[in-house]
Design a protein that fits this description.
Layout: H1 3-7, H2 11-34, H3 41-62
Helix pairs in contact: 2-3
């Protein structure tokens, strides 16, 4: 996801996306713990997406 795409979404959409990303992050951590994770780079990508969404939400809150 790009930040420019995220800035076009509403707060509610971003909040829903953040919840989905948190669930995906949890699922990936569980897969990693059990040794079932094949794409290890996906954990890093989801973590960065979460940070990106949180940054956009913080920018909206300040504005």
């Amino acid at each position: 996801m790009k930040a420019s795409e995220l800035r076009q979404k509403s707060r509610d959409e971003l909040s829903a996306l953040l919840i989905d990303l948190a669930r995906e992050s949890f699922a990936l951590k569980m897969q990693k713990g059990t040794g079932q994770l094949t794409k290890t780079a996906q954990v890093k990508q989801v973590r960065r997406d979460v940070a990106r969404v949180q940054t956009i939400l913080n920018e909206m809150a300040r504005a």
